[in-house]
């Protein structure tokens, strides 16, 4: 008897607590019905208080009252919280009430309410279990409010089903809608490569790099190069590097090109591969010497030296080391915001062999420094 009484007392206390919280939430939503976080807490309270199916009406009543308060303005932050109310409502119907039809009806109403000219909210379209209905919904979504996530979800669905032709059509629509999307181009080419369709993959990459505008061209070119290198198509990879260097002389392209030449050497071709890589390094070093880009030139020389240190001849290594510059500390004036003198700052510069030959005074200064150092050491 004592145990039953304590259980009954506990339930009574819990009911009192729930009732008080209901009252507090009712007051809060009356004061501001667009405070969606309060509606979330209110719905969570009712879901936690469910004891039987007869209690579902309380949860549904809270959600229905909550979603009736459409955001008064096209504010993405407000609409995001509002849409999550709809999603939570649908999840309750699907997982708690086990009513799939009602959950689908909730999502359909949410899609009707959303102003698609301003927002898409892909989550409202992709939550669908039936295959035919999912395809229909995703097709409608892409037609009404195309978005990266929608295309990706649809492609993933068709990939899981093994329908390659549908995937190709979807990528076609995707890239027609967003031709500058490098990630989409690379994903399409990767799909074809995974199917063993190397010629199709290469054709897609060619179309991609031919676009006038691309959001991340460096990632696309890298994907194309990785594809050719992965297929051991060394001549095609070399031609691709040359095309890329015609567009940009960035040091990373040169270094990657030289690294590829080393990797291209098969068994017994180590020396020939290093010679090809050395030719690339030499060309890069000459290019940066001509353009006066010292930092880039040093990076090339360091990579060239490291390659030879791992397996080149001593003569070749000595030749590259002779090209290495001296690192010297210099001072330069600093100007303020209005162009006035604001002091001096120290910085490091590189002095290459040809610069020393062109400036004898530098040698004199170097000799003076050495003499002073020797004198100090002698005095000590």
TrEMBL record:
It is found in: Nucleus. Keywords: mRNA processing, mRNA splicing, Nucleus, Repeat, Spliceosome. It comes from Emiliania huxleyi (strain CCMP1516). GO terms for cellular component: post-mRNA release spliceosomal complex; precatalytic spliceosome; Prp19 complex; U2-type catalytic step 2 spliceosome. It holds the Pfam family HAT_PRP39_N. One of its GO terms (biological process) is spliceosomal complex assembly. Belongs to the crooked-neck family. The keyword Manganese does not apply. InterPro entries: HAT, Syf1-like, TPR-like_helical_dom_sf. This is Crooked neck protein. Involved in pre-mRNA splicing and cell cycle progression. Required for the spliceosome assembly and initiation of the DNA replication. Its main location: nucleus.
